[in-house]
Amino acid sequence: MLPPLVSVIIPIYNVSRYLKECLDSVVSQTYKHLEIILINDGSEDGSEEIAREYLYDPRVQLISQINKGLSAARNVGMKKASGAYIMFVDSDDYLSLNYIAEMVEIAIRFDVEMVCNEAIVRFGRTRLSNPQRKEPQRYVPDSHNIVFGGAVWRFLFLRQFLERCGVEFLEGKVYEDEAFLYMISPFCNAFVRYCGEYYFYRQRDDSIMAQHKNFRNYDLLDVFRSIYLYYQSNCLLEHFSPPYYFLYDCAIGYSNEKEYLDRAEKLSKELGAYPYFFKRKILYKLGRFSKILYLIKRVVCARKKKK
Question: CB 3.0-4.6 Å disulfide test: which of 40, 44, 128, 243 passes with 64?
């Protein structure tokens, strides 16, 4: 009996410098029963030619389209996928060789519809220490444990579960992973989080997220709107909280903090969520005040010791 087929969806856009490393790590996985779907999203740097070199492998298929963005490419891949499981890999990253095999084994052993492997090794601009292994823990979704922080490439999804949800990635928006995960997670029977085989995440100065390092993109408010309205229309607000911290906490310290908060306040009133915006604001200010008092207390104590 064949093991479950895993559809690996890899959007590609102008990553010729890194693509071979990514694809080599996928075709060389110890788990062999794969459907590898490459979506060339209008690359102009020779990435498509590199992708074509892998068509010798019958598991690999290549779809080329005009540039529509990461979300659109992922949505195309999901529609094309026929595996029992679906996973996403960013085309400038790469996987440890036993990465997929471990995720499938855990999904089957714990009988869950989502598996999240949090063993991420970041490299590129900086190199962080490798995360320690953590044993798998099974969870039933609630408002607290579905705060994943985006990054769908950490997950293995049961395809039937994604089809049941009917959720696609928001196109033309940054933070599309956040929206996707917040929308599907409430419908999951259970999921597993663990740290196991490594996912190698490349940090690039020209990446989408790096470009917003000091500026909080207003797309995050559009993402919040989409999540809130989705929860509202699916009668989820009674049991699951949308990410209200998107409205306040996420703006603090950025160059456009004031403008972001003004827009967030307006949005919260429009959605009828202003009490939650006000609560985040008060909690933040109380926390800031507590830190100031703590620092004053330390200074006073230090001066007394000197005397």
Answer: 40
Alpha helices in 115-175 (DSSP H): 159-165
Q: Which CATH number fits domain 6-210: 3.10.20.30, 1.10.150.130, 3.90.550.10, 3.40.50.720?
A: 3.90.550.10
Q: Record the tokens describing residue 230, joined without a space.
A: 């989705």
Token pair belonging to 132: 């320690």
Output helix, strand, coil percentages for the chain, rounded to the nearest 5: 45, 20, 40
Q: How many whole angstroms separate alpha carbon 298 and alpha carbon 181? A: 42
User: pLDDT of the chain along its 307 residues, tens only?
Assistant: 889 999 999 999 999 999 999 999 999 999 999 999 999 999 999 999 999 999 999 999 999 999 999 999 999 999 999 999 999 999 999 999 999 999 999 999 999 999 999 999 988 766 566 778 899 999 999 999 999 988 999 999 999 999 999 999 999 999 999 999 999 999 999 999 999 999 999 986 665 555 545 788 999 999 999 999 999 999 999 999 999 989 888 888 889 988 998 999 999 999 998 887 877 777 666 655 555 555 555 655 656 565 5
- Angle, vertex CA 124, rays to CA 132 and CA 86, nearest 5: 65
- For residue 263, which amino acid is it? R
Which residues make beta-bridge pairs with 63?
A: 39
All structural domains of the chain with their residue ranges: 6-210, 214-306
Which position has the token pair 């080599």? Answer: 24
